[in-house]
Amino acid sequence: MKRDFKEWLSQFRVSISNYAYYVDFAKVYNNVDNAKVELNILNSLVGSKNIRQDFLALVGKYPETIKCIPILLAVRGQEIRVNDENKDLNFVFTKDLDVNCLSEFMEKSGLFELISNRIINNLVDYVLGVEVGLDSNGRKNRGGHLMEDVVENHLINAGFKRDENYFKEMYLQDIEKRWNVDLSALSNNGKAKKRFDFVVKTNNCIYAMETNFYGGFGGGSKLNETARSYKMLAQEAQDIQNFKFVWITDGTAWRSARNNLEETFDIMDNMYNLKELEEGVFKQILV
């Protein structure tokens, strides 16, 4: 029985975000703990009236504190590049960094003022806040992994076992080698390095899956391009024997790209949303 696109789209959800999506506190705490000793040493500078002199004396005695400077500016890693009056400067925050250059950096970056004027009271707490902010940048990646986790749980509930009859993040070339199947129609004769989120192998068929979730209420050109590219992929896969392309997608942002999504829906037999996964569609189609 042919499904109704409008009804199918109406089942899409605003969000699948769990509590851990917003901030990975375990990662944040670990990053802070790795610098806690050095940050506490630097804490002795808070409120200093002679910040430059006190700072130089402190790093002379405790040069290991230098590694903490980048994170005070919300920079990961030990290297910061600066253009200063048309001069390209590269600061590498190790014990070998010239202390006069380091002092100049602290002055011009505003860190001396931050520390000496008691704008902050505790550098450990300050870095905790910085780490939370930096970690929020990882939400996009976590969002993609959330959908993959949901789909994987449904595969497991349907009786499939990882690395036995379902595989995660598998390239076209690896599928071809493992099961001796010709997928050149999808890879442009081996030129494209396509990778699928999941591949399920049953006795009768290979199912290559893409998964994504677009929450909220706007997606623009990216969603249109996604729908078009998956439509093309589905059409290319139609003539490959014992191989099927499956697309699992959801999220209310699709409503802004519903026309392109509907075009793909009309030509794809194996396109499903989260509600259908919850209703056990994997047990019905993966045979």
Structure described in brief:
The chain has 287 residues and is α/β, with parallel strands linked by helices. The protein has helices at 5-10, 25-33, 36-42, 51-61, 69-72, 99-109, 111-116, 123-136, 139-157, 172-179, 184-187, 221-237, 258-267, 274-278, 281-285, and strands spanning 79-84, 87-92, 166-171, 195-201, 206-213, 243-250, 271-272.
Walk me through this protein's architecture.
With 287 residues, the protein is of the alpha/beta class. The protein folds into two domains: 5-19 and 138-285, Trna Endonuclease, Chain: A, domain 1 (3-Layer(aba) Sandwich), CATH 3.40.1350; 34-136, no CATH class. It is 47% helix and 15% strand. The chain is built from 15 helices and seven strands. Helix 12 (221-237) links the parallel strand 5 and strand 6 (243-250). Helix 4 (51-61) crosses helix 6. It starts with a helix and ends with a helix.
